[in-house]
């Protein structure tokens, strides 16, 4: 079974392809509405509700491909609720999932209508031929009824009304639980129930899934409340502390943070107990339950901020001995991701200033390199990434950043930009630098500087990567360095220096930073070989 992180990523990609299939095409009439609908749906997020629906279908032995339209409908309802939640008349939020909220981009009127359209379109999908041709009418009707109840006055909308009425007031635990069981848990529970229904679950299985959904739905909201208190905007993709700002009723406000965590842990145990009679097919539901409750810890692990017995923990599913020393590493990063710390180390080691640079950042992702370049004084940064919706909201809305998403850097040409760049940074994954550099060098000015992050795990062939996706052999590191740097020099980038990155990559992979200059004379073959040997020498060797 693949790790949960990989499973989530695969399901998110699968779902986004399905969203694209079901939503109005880009520019469809009326274009303002279709654009607003697509903007909010494709604004990122973990897709927890549709993923839970698919996992519940899998748990009862159903066909996940057949229920994909229902998973889309679930996300459309959820997205409509976020659009309306963010409106000035409700939570008045400017950011959602790391981007401007819909009403900040399209105006309040179009945002309201986009939410309306997504809500009604969800039921159009539920009643459409993709589902009616595969499921018995009675089963599909029950699933649709479940979605409608969870979204309406007896579910999400009812919870929102009580939530708004409770702002700035002291509330009892019963009222707080009512709010969250309706506003949040209802739709999460419906996702699990609908997955079980369409998957062909028995009455006993459906009852167990209902108990699981109710428990994990409430645990999700408690974890979210704690994150709003303890998290930061970079981790949340929205402004932290908003619940306190609006005087909202939350579990930490009523019970305290530690008691809230304990309550979430008890609900996690209830959810896992509900799955007691399920076989291994429900393992994803078990993993998702733990993920929902432990999101804060997992975010810290993935950011490289947790050490176990002095070693940085890199996998969320790693086993840790009960007696192990677990501690939080270092002060908060000054950048939106730890990639910024890697580039900062390179700028210092290579004595690169970046002041007033016009930079091209390839593989921008969350924007660690972009953030570092801006803090170093860059005048403008073109942030290029093949993905979508990953760049941190602060950078996305910085006038010095030009966002180029859904862009395969391998096919860039000078005609794609209004100017040449005098600084290049590359932090690419799942593709070799040797494939990227021939397209990138023509985009640069003469004497442009470049800093490349060389990742052996993406340079060696698939058969050469070791267990767990780690390249450990120093000989392989040396071969990768020689091949990449020789390729860079062949493209017209003269090698100036290279260092071992002070921060390892995912799962402990060793990575390297290289400093090159366009038009500079290449390092000799012998000098290159000696440098690579020096960089890849084992500690103490």
Automatic annotation (TrEMBL):
InterPro entries: Hemolysin_A/TlyA, Isoprenoid_synthase_dom_sf, Polyprenyl_synt, Polyprenyl_synt_CS, Prenyl_diphosphate_synthase, RNA_MeTrfase_FtsJ_dom, S4_RNA-bd_sf, SAM-dependent_MTases_sf. GO terms for cellular component: cytoplasm. GO terms for molecular function: metal ion binding; methyltransferase activity; prenyltransferase activity; RNA binding. Keywords: Isoprene biosynthesis, Magnesium, Metal-binding, RNA-binding, Transferase. It comes from the Eukaryota. One of its GO terms (biological process) is isoprenoid biosynthetic process. Its cofactor is Mg(2+). Residues 335-516 form the Ribosomal RNA methyltransferase FtsJ domain. PROSITE patterns: POLYPRENYL_SYNTHASE_1, POLYPRENYL_SYNTHASE_2, S4. Pfam families: FtsJ, polyprenyl_synt. NCBIfam families: FPPsyn, tly. PANTHER family: FARNESYL DIPHOSPHATE SYNTHASE. Belongs to the TlyA family. Belongs to the FPP/GGPP synthase family. This is Geranylgeranyl pyrophosphate synthase, chloroplastic/chromoplastic.
């Amino acid at each position: 079974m693949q790790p949960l992180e990989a499973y989530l990523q695969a399901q998110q990609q699968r779902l986004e392809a399905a969203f694209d299939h079901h939503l109005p095409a880009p520019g469809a009439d009326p274009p303002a509405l279709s654009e607003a609908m697509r903007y909010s749906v494709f604004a990122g997020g973990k897709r927890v509700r549709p993923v839970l629906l698919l996992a519940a279908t899998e748990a009862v032995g159903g066909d996940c491909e057949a229920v994909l339209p229902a998973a889309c409908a679930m996300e459309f309802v959820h997205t409509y609720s976020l659009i309306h939640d963010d409106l000035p008349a409700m939570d008045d939020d400017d950011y959602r999932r790391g981007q401007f909220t819909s009403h900040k981009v399209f105006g309040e009127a179009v945002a309201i209508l986009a939410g309306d359209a997504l809500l009604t379109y969800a039921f159009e999908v539920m009643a459409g031929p993709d589902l009616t041709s595969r499921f018995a009418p009675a089963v599909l009707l029950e699933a649709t009824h479940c979605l409608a109840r969870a979204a309406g006055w007896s579910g999400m909308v009812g919870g929102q009304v009580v939530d708004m009425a409770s702002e700035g007031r002291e509330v009892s635990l019963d009222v707080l639980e009512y709010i969250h069981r309706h506003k949040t848990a209802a739709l999460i529970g419906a996702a699990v129930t609908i997955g079980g229904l369409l998957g062909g679950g028995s009455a006993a299985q459906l009852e167990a899934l209902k108990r699981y959904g109710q428990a994990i739905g409430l645990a999700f909201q408690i974890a979210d409340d704690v994150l709003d208190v303890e998290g930061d905007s970079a981790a949340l993709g929205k402004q932290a502390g908003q619940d306190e700002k609006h005087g909202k009723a939350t579990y930490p406000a009523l019970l305290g943070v530690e008691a809230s965590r304990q309550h979430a842990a008890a609900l996690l145990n209830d959810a896992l107990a509900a799955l007691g009679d399920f076989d291994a097919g429900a393992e994803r539901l078990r993993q998702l339950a733990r993920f929902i409750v432990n999101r804060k810890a997992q975010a810290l692990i993935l950011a490289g901020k947790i050490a176990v017995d002095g070693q940085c923990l890199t996998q969320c599913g790693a086993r840790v001995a009960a007696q192990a020393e677990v501690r939080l590493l270092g002060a908060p990063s000054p950048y939106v991701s730890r990639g910024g710390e890697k580039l900062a180390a390179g700028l210092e080691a290579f004595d690169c200033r970046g002041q007033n640079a016009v930079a091209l950042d390839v593989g921008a992702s969350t924007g660690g390199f972009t953030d570092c370049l801006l803090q170093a004084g860059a005048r403008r940064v073109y942030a290029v990434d093949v993905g979508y919706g990953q760049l941190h909201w602060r950078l996305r809305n910085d006038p010095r950043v030009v966002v180029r998403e859904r862009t395969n850097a391998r096919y860039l040409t000078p005609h794609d930009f209004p100017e040449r760049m005098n600084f290049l940074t590359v932090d690419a994954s799942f593709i070799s630098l040797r494939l990227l550099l021939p397209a990138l060098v023509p985009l640069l000015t003469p004497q442009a500087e470049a800093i490349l992050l060389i990742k052996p795990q993406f340079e060696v062939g698939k058969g050469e990567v070791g267990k767990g996706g780690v390249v450990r052999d120093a000989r392989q590191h040396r071969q990768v360095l020689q091949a990449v740097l020789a390729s860079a020099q062949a493209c017209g980038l003269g090698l100036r220096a290279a260092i071992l990155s002070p921060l390892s990559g995912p799962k402990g992979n060793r990575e390297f930073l290289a400093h090159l200059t366009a038009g500079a004379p290449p390092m000799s073959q012998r000098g290159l070989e000696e440098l690579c040997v020096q960089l890849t020498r084992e500690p103490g060797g």
